[in-house]
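Supplementary Text 2. Reproducibility record for the structural model of the 207-residue chain.

All settings were left at their defaults, and a single model was retained for analysis rather than an ensemble. We include the record here because the model underlies the residue-level annotations in Supplementary Table 4.
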Amino acid sequence: MARPQTIEICKRDLFTEETALYEIYPEETVQRLLRLRKEYTWFLANPDAKDRVFISEVRSRFNLGVTQAYADLSVIKSLLPTLSQASRDFHRYRFNEMILETYQMAKARKDTKTMEKAAASYAKFNRVDLEDEQAVPYEMIVVQPFTATDDPTVLGIKPIPNLQQKIDQMIKHYGAETIDIEDIDYEEPDLEEELWTPKKEEVTHDE
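Retained model, structure tokens:
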């Protein structure tokens, strides 16, 4: 079984930048988060893979024992409903990762044109050129004063006079026209089998 603490940490920080993770968690926790991140990415890319394939893959890739591999699988499966809701965050993370990889490759080739394009895409996607939005303090949020009512006039509907009386009259009127349901006992069907089923001695076989 996956430990709740591990699942909660993954819900919060599975896609958090690696440098930020080291500021929050010890190295052992960060290393497992990074491993689970890669495992989750593989899981998304291979949605039809059986559990045994996943276990074989992560054991080979990360040199894990069977117990640890199954523990990771339990975490991934526990996170799937939550992470699927946050799929946009995952794709944002993947986009940033690809842009940064492109930038680093261009930098190694001293390709300043590609470096500039990658940097511009990164800045535009993450909206770094905009001022941080100011969150409205909770104490300033006004709650709408909703009040329950059975008065249809609030919707612009004219009320029906003596509504309950009219309802009783319609039930009485249409109830009288309803055919009563009669329960009957089960009876064996008379299929007249002797008329259409040949007798045993009449059955012949072709030689």
